[in-house]
Write a sequence for this structure.
């Protein structure tokens, strides 16, 4: 790294280094001094930086070492004796701000029962009997908690504590779900705090104090989150330690899997293209409602059924989807980054008569047409739409007509005279089973072996990235995660070849269809 490049890097990271120092020191002045020491050491040690890619790892290594030296010197000059009579901040001499910072830091690391007793006694001036009543414990237990917390605080204030990487470089995890609905997991895991708790205790079992240090979140903010995560079985407790109870597919793992299976993508796309071309006329001959749609729409519809069936290929060694903390059977996992090639999601819902409405949403670049969220969880919309698909000219109420107007606006329904018509294929159960059997035969002969080889490769790689206590889930998660490599990437190749076009027909839905029960 030459001198100009180094200057640019130093200018780029100076604010980050200062923020790091502000989190480590009790005053701004000390943070400025410490950051200057770190930057000086970086410049002095620049000759040891191998290349640009190694700069940030080197920078944090230098920052950590300089901070340790600074902290050791500070400990030599600072002592703190903690008694039952903790003075207020205004009563302390000016040079005691460091002790105040350390005391506050240790208070944030006290577990809930110790912290509550300490705050009630020292800050809210409650007596032991009042604390006993407030916490529903004996007075002797209150005295024990106060004695123990003083000891913990004193020991902690004389310890060097380093915040973990997640405190300055937090993870973003994307929750993934496959199983019975409703999917409450994805909404539950939108919290950045929850995501980083899972990240912190993924590879190592940690105490709540260790989680706090690793994430940089004080324990008062973590208590309820950890309880919720444990209640929903996202993390599990062993003694005083917590560990993640679901697999996280890291960016490195995902990239390694894609490199290993990329050779299969063209093979699958070629076979899909041949099958759809060869069977399109057979598919049309089934005489279903919608057989007169454009060829592009019908290719998409046949492909959609094929895609759904590939998702169900049995790759062996998988376990039944476990029960989640919400009570349904489902696979739960997280990925560090959502693969940009993940272009589909799929869903099926039933109306009150058992007729089925299937979605295979295409949402790349926001050009998709049809979205299961338009109907999912809305039984009235599902029932009305399936009535239209059945050709039931029931007298719709004004309330129903408002729903139909919304469906027309979104492209699911068109009005013809005084009647309404769905813009999706509608199959009888017999017609649908005929299509399914044709697709099953093709998959069994042409694709199953490839998909299983791909799944086996992915599972082996995922296994090497997965903690031992979660390895029983690897086969199931790898099987669920094969969706991108077995469906999405081959489908993208068919789109790139213009075999499947995203220039949708304005009056036809390309990946949504209905199967009637009779």
């Amino acid at each position: 790294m030459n001198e100009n490049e180094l200057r640019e890097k130093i200018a780029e990271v100076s604010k980050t280094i200062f923020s790091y120092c502000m989190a480590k020191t009790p005053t701004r002045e000390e943070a400025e001094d410490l950051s200057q020491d770190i930057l000086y050491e970086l410049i002095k040690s620049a000759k040891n930086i191998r290349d640009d890619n190694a700069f940030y790892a080197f920078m944090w290594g230098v920052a950590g070492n300089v901070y340790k030296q600074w902290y050791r010197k500070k400990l030599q000059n600072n002592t703190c004796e903690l008694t039952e009579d903790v003075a207020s901040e205004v009563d302390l001499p000016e040079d005691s701000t460091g002790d105040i910072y350390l005391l506050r830091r240790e208070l944030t690391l006290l577990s809930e029962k110790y912290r509550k007793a300490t705050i009630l006694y020292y800050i809210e001036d409650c007596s032991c009997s009042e604390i006993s009543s407030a916490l529903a414990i004996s007075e002797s237990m209150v005295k024990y908690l106060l004695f123990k917390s003083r000891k913990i605080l004193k020991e902690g204030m004389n310890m060097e504590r380093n915040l973990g990487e997640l405190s300055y470089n937090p993870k973003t995890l994307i929750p993934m779900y496959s199983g019975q609905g409703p999917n409450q997991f994805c909404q539950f895991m939108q919290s950045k705090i929850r995501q980083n708790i899972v990240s912190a205790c993924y590879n190592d079992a940690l105490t709540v104090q260790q989680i706090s240090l690793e994430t940089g979140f004080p324990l008062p903010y973590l208590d309820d989150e950890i309880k919720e995560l444990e209640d929903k079985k996202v993390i599990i407790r062993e003694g005083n330690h917590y560990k993640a109870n679901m697999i996280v597919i890291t960016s490195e793992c995902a990239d390694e899997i894609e490199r290993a299976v990329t050779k299969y993508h063209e093979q699958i796309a070629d076979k899909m293209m041949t099958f759809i071309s060869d069977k399109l006329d057979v598919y049309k001959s089934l005489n279903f409602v919608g057989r007169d749609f454009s060829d592009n729409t019908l290719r998409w519809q046949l492909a959609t059924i094929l895609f759904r069936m590939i998702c169900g290929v049995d790759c062996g060694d998988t376990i039944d989807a476990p029960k989640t903390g919400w009570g349904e059977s489902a696979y739960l996992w997280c990925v560090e980054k959502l693969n940009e090639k993940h272009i589909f999601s799929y869903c099926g819902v039933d109306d009150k008569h058992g007729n089925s409405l299937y979605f295979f949403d295409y949402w790349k670049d926001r050009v998709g047409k049809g979205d299961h969220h338009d109907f999912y969880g809305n039984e009235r919309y599902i029932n009305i739409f399936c009535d239209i698909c059945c050709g039931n000219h029931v007298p719709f109420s004004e309330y129903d007509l408002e729903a139909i107007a919304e469906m027309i606006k979104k492209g699911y329904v068109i009005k013809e005279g005084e009647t309404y018509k769905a813009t999706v294929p509608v199959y009888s159960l017999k017609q649908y089973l005929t299509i399914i059997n044709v697709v099953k035969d093709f998959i069994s002969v042409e694709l199953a072996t490839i998909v299983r080889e791909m799944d086996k490769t992915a599972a082996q790689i995922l296994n090497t990235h997965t903690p031992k206590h979660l390895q029983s889930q690897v086969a199931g998660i790898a099987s669920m995660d094969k969706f991108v490599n077995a469906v999405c990437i081959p489908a993208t190749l068919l789109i790139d070849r213009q075999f499947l076009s995203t220039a949708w027909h304005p009056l036809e839905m390309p990946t949504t269809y209905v199967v009637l029960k009779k």
